[in-house]
C-alpha cells in the first residue's frame, strides 16, 4: 500500500515537474524540431503531428534529438558515441536545457528558421537534404547488401587490393575490428580495476551508480595538431594569402581574400562576403550554414567556390527496460561547398559528413582532405557497440581500416578526400586505429606522427600515406627516437623525410634523422645540444635550420645536400629563442619568439630576429627587436595568424600583454626592423580580456596598397601609401 502511495506521489511530482518544464519551454522562441511536442515524442514516444514531420525529415543535427530506432542502431556498427544515463526527471531536465539552448542560439544570432519576409536580405541559408535524398537526386543507391554490410567488404570485386604497412594491416572484416577493440577495452578495464576504479563508471570500484547519476563510458582525450615549410608568397602589388606550411598545399583559415572580396568568419559563425574596393567596404552577401548548432572552424576559397568546415554533435536518446534513458553524443564534421559566382546569392552545392572530432584539413588542387578523430564505444555485445566511422554516406570499409599489431589506443584517425567539383561525394577514406599527435602534409604525402607513450614517449612513430586526386594510399611506416616539437620539425624533399627530435633520458638531447621513401633511417645526427630542447625548425631545399634552447638560443644550420651524410655547418648562440622561423627573401631568415635573460632565463618580451643566412656555416643575427610590453604572440604557435610577404617587404603579427595590439613591420638592412603600423585594441576602451580576444584571433591582409585589419567585431582599412592612414571602418558584430 505504501509502495503504491509512493509511486502515486512520484508520478504527481513528475507531472508537476513536466508541467513546469513545458511552461518554461513555451516562453522560448525555438525551432519547430526543438518544440516541446517533438521533445515529448523523442522521450516518451507520444505521437504528435510535428513529431511525425520531424521523424520523417530525419532530424539529427547538432543540438537536436534523433530516435535510435533505426537500422544503424540495430546493426551496432555505429550510432551512439558517449552514453549518459538519466531517469525520466533527468531526461526531462536535459530536454529543457536542449530546448532553451537551441532557442538561445537562434535568438543570439538574430535569425529565424523560417524563410519569411523577416529574414535579413543579405542572409543566405540553405536547407540540408538527407543523404538518401541527395543520392536519389543523383540516381545512386546508398544502401548496401546484407552480405556486404556484414563483412565490410567492397561491392566492387575489381577494387584494388589495399596494401599493408609496417606494423599495421587492413582488417579482414568488421568482426576483426570489434575483436581488436574489445580486447583493448578489457585490458583497460582490468587495469582500471587494479587501480581501484570501476571500469564501467570511471569511479571508485566500490561505488555504485545511483539513479540520476551520469555514466560516461569513454574518457575524452586532447589532441594537439601543428604544421611546416615556406609558402609561395604573392608578388608585391597583388594580395596576401593564408600563411601555410607547405608551398602548394592550402590550409583553411577564418579570413580569405581573392583580391576583390573579403570572406570573414564572424563570431556568430556566419561568413560575411565584403566588397573591398580599395577600402570602400560593403557587405554584399552572407552565408549561414543550415545547422545553427554547428561551429564553423575555417574555410577554403577556390575561385567561385567557398568551402566551410564545420564541427557539430548529435544528441541521441534511448529508453532502457528499467525506465532509464541513455543520452548519447555523436561528433562529426561537415564540409559545406557553396557556389559564390553570385556573391549576393551563394548556393549550397553539396555537403559531406564525416564522423569524429575535427583535427585539421588540407587542400591540394580540387581536393580537400579532412582529418577527424573518431572515438568508438565498445559494449559487451558487438551489436550494441558503435565502432565503425562513416565518411560520406557509407561506413568505412573494413579493408580500409588499419589495425596495429597491438592496439594501444582505441581512437581512430579518419582521413577522407573530397572533390569540391562533386562536393557531395567522398573520393576515398582511410582509418587508423590509433591516435595522432601531429600531421605534416607535403605536396605528395601525408605523414601521421604518434608519440609512443608505451615507451615513455621516447619514440615517434610515423605513418606515411601517398595522396593524389582524392585517393589516399598507405605507403610506409617508420619510427625515430624522441618527440617532435611540432610538424615544422618535419620536411619532405626529393623523396626523403628530414626530422628533428628531442629525447629525454638523464638529460635532454636532440637529433636529426633522414628517412628514405620506405621510411627507413638512412642517416642520423644524434646527441646534439645536450640539456636543451628544440623550439623551432625550418627547411629550405638542401639546408635546414633548427633552434634549441636552455638559457640561450643556439641556431643550428645543417647541410642536407647528401641525404645519407648530413653535416652540421654552424651554431649561432643568441639570447632568447625563436618559436617560429620564416624565410624572408634571399639569404634572410625571420625569427619570431621570446627574449630572455641569459643568466636567469626570465622572459623579457616578444622578440623579432633577422638572421643573415648568406653563409650557412656562419649565420649571423643581423638585427633584433624586443617588445617588452608584450609577453605573447599568437604567431609563435599559429603561423596562420602571421601575415607575411617578403616580396612586398611586409609582415604583420598580433601581440598580447598588458596592452594588446596588431603590428606591421618592414625590414631594412641599414635600419633593421621598422614598425610601420600599430593598432592597440584597448584604444577603443575595451577591457583587458576583450582586447586579448580581439588580438588573439585578429588577421591582417592586404589588397594592393590597402591594408585590412580584421578582428572579432570590425574591419579597418588603411592606406599603406599614405602612412597607414585609416580609410574606413566596417562593424561586423
Question: Can you walk me through this structure?
Answer:
With 733 residues, the chain is of the alpha+beta class. It has a domain at 13-116. Helices cover 15% and strands 41% of the residues. The chain is built from 9 helices and 44 strands. Strands 1, 2, 9, 10, 11 and 12 form a 6-stranded mixed β-sheet that branches. Strands 4-17-19-18-14-13 form a 6-stranded mixed β-sheet, with no helix packed on it. Strand 42 and strand 43 (714-719) form a beta hairpin. Helix 1 runs parallel beside helix 5. The longest helix is centred in the N-terminal third of the chain and has 25 residues, at 2-26. The protein is globular and about 75 Å long. The N and C termini lie far apart (62 Å). Mean pLDDT is 77; it is low at 20-75, 79-162 and 199-236.
Global geometry:
globular
Helix coverage percent: 10-25%
Distance between the termini: 62 Å
Counted beta strands: 44
List keywords for this structure.
single chain, 6-stranded mixed beta sheet, 9 helices
Describe the SSE topology:
Blueprint: H1 2-26, H2 36-44, H3 49-57, E1 65-67, H4 71-75, E2 84-86, H5 88-108, E3 123-125, H6 131-138, H7 146-151, E4 168-170, H8 174-194, E5 255-257, E6 261-265, E7 271-275, E8 282-288, E9 295-302, E10 305-319, E11 325-339, E12 347-355, E13 357-364, E14 367-374, E15 390-391, E16 394-395, E17 401-404, E18 412-419, E19 426-432, E20 438-441, E21 445-451, E22 459-468, E23 471-481, E24 490-493, E25 496-504, E26 508-515, E27 521-528, E28 533-540, E29 543-549, E30 552-559, E31 567-575, E32 577-583, E33 588-596, E34 603-612, E35 620-627, E36 630-632, E37 643-645, E38 650-657, E39 661-668, E40 672-680, H9 688-696, E41 699-703, E42 706-711, E43 714-719, E44 725-731
Parallel strand pairs: 1-10, 3-8, 17-19
Antiparallel strand pairs: 2-11, 4-17, 5-6, 6-7, 7-8, 9-10, 10-11, 11-12, 13-14, 14-18, 15-16, 18-19, 20-21, 21-22, 22-23, 24-25, 25-26, 26-27, 28-29, 29-30, 30-31, 32-33, 33-34, 34-35, 36-38, 37-38, 38-39, 39-40, 41-42, 42-43, 43-44
Helix pairs in contact: 1-5, 2-3
Amino acid at each position: 500500500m505504501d509502495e503504491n502511495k509512493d509511486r502515486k506521489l512520484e508520478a504527481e511530482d513528475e507531472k508537476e515537474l513536466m508541467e513546469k518544464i513545458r511552461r518554461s519551454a513555451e516562453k522560448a522562441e525555438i525551432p519547430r524540431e526543438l518544440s516541446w511536442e517533438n521533445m515529448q515524442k523523442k522521450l516518451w514516444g507520444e505521437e504528435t503531428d510535428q513529431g511525425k514531420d520531424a521523424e520523417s525529415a530525419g532530424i539529427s543535427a547538432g543540438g537536436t534529438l534523433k530516435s535510435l530506432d533505426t537500422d544503424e542502431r540495430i546493426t551496432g556498427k555505429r550510432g551512439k558515441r558517449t552514453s549518459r544515463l538519466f531517469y525520466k526527471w533527468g531526461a526531462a531536465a536535459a530536454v529543457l536545457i536542449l530546448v532553451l539552448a537551441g532557442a538561445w542560439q537562434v535568438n543570439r544570432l538574430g535569425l529565424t528558421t523560417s524563410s519569411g519576409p523577416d529574414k535579413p536580405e543579405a542572409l543566405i541559408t540553405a536547407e540540408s537534404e538527407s543523404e538518401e535524398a541527395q543520392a536519389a537526386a543523383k540516381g545512386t543507391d546508398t544502401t548496401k547488401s546484407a552480405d556486404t554490410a556484414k563483412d565490410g567488404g567492397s561491392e566492387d570485386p575489381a577494387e584494388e587490393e589495399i596494401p599493408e604497412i609496417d606494423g599495421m594491416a587492413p582488417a579482414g572484416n568488421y568482426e576483426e575490428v570489434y575483436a581488436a577493440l574489445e580486447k583493448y577495452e578489457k585490458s583497460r578495464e582490468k587495469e582500471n580495476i587494479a587501480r581501484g576504479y570501476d571500469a564501467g563508471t570511471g569511479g571508485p570500484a566500490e561505488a555504485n551508480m545511483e539513479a540520476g547519476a551520469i555514466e560516461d563510458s569513454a574518457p575524452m582525450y586532447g589532441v594537439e595538431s601543428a604544421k611546416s615549410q615556406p609558402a609561395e608568397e604573392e608578388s608585391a602589388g597583388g594580395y596576401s594569402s593564408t600563411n601555410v606550411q607547405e608551398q602548394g598545399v592550402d590550409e583553411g583559415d577564418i579570413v580569405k581574400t581573392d583580391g576583390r572580396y573579403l570572406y570573414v568568419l564572424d563570431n556568430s559563425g556566419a561568413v560575411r562576403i565584403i566588397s573591398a574596393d580599395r577600402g570602400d567596404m560593403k557587405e554584399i552577401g552572407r552565408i549561414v550554414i543550415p545547422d545553427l548548432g554547428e561551429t564553423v572552424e575555417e574555410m577554403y576559397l577556390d575561385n567561385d567556390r567557398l568551402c566551410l568546415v564545420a564541427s557539430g554533435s548529435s544528441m541521441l536518446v534511448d529508453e532502457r527496460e528499467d525506465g532509464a534513458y541513455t543520452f548519447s553524443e555523436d561528433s562529426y564534421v561537415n564540409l559545406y561547398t557553396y557556389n559564390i559566382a553570385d556573391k549576393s546569392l551563394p548556393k549550397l552545392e553539396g555537403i559531406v559528413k564525416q564522423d569524429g572530432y575535427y583535427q585539421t584539413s588540407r587542400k591540394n588542387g580540387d581536393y580537400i582532405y579532412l582529418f577527424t578523430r573518431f572515438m568508438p564505444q565498445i559494449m559487451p555485445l558487438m551489436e550494441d557497440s558503435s565502432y565503425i566511422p562513416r565518411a560520406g554516406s557509407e561506413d568505412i570499409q573494413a579493408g580500409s581500416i588499419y589495425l596495429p599489431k597491438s592496439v594501444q589506443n582505441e581512437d581512430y584517425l579518419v582521413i577522407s578526400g573530397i572533390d569540391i567539383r562533386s562536393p557531395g561525394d567522398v573520393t576515398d577514406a582511410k582509418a587508423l586505429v590509433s591516435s595522432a599527435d601531429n600531421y605534416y602534409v607535403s605536396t605528395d604525402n601525408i605523414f601521421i606522427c604518434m608519440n609512443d607513450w608505451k615507451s615513455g614517449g621516447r619514440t615517434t612513430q610515423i605513418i606515411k600515406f601517398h595522396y593524389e586526386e582524392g585517393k589516399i594510399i598507405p605507403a610506409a611506416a617508420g619510427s625515430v627516437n624522441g618527440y617532435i616539437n611540432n610538424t615544422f620539425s618535419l620536411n619532405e624533399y626529393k623523396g626523403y623525410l628530414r626530422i628533428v627530435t628531442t629525447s629525454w633520458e638523464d638529460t635532454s638531447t636532440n637529433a636529426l634523422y633522414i628517412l628514405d621513401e620506405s621510411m627507413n633511417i638512412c642517416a642520423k645526427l644524434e646527441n646534439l645540444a645536450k640539456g636543451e630542447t628544440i623550439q623551432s625548425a625550418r627547411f629550405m631545399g638542401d639546408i635546414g635550420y633548427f633552434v634549441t634552447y636552455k638559457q640561450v638560443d643556439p641556431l643550428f644550420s645543417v647541410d642536407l645536400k647528401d641525404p645519407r651524410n648530413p653535416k652540421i655547418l654552424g651554431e649561432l648562440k643568441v639570447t632568447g629563442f625563436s618559436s617560429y622561423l620564416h624565410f624572408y627573401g634571399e639569404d634572410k631568415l625571420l625569427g619570431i619568439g621570446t627574449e630572455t635573460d641569459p643568466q636567469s632565463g626570465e622572459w623579457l618580451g616578444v622578440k623579432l630576429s633577422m638572421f643573415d643566412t648568406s653563409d650557412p656555416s656562419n649565420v649571423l643575427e643581423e638585427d633584433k627587436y624586443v617588445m617588452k610590453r608584450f609577453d605573447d604572440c599568437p604567431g609563435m604557435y599559429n603561423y596562420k595568424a602571421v601575415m607575411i610577404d617578403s616580396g612586398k617587404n611586409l609582415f604583420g603579427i598580433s601581440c598580447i600583454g598588458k596592452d594588446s595590439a596588431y603590428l606591421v613591420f618592414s625590414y631594412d638592412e641599414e635600419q633593421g626592423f621598422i614598425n610601420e603600423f600599430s593598432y592597440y585594441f584597448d584604444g577603443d576602451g575595451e577591457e583587458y580580456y576583450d582586447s586579448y580576444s580581439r588580438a588573439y584571433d585578429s588577421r591582417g591582409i592586404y589588397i594592393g596598397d590597402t591594408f585590412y585589419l580584421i578582428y572579432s567585431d570590425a574591419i579597418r582599412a588603411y592606406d599603406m601609401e599614405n602612412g597607414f592612414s585609416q580609410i574606413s571602418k566596417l562593424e561586423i558584430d
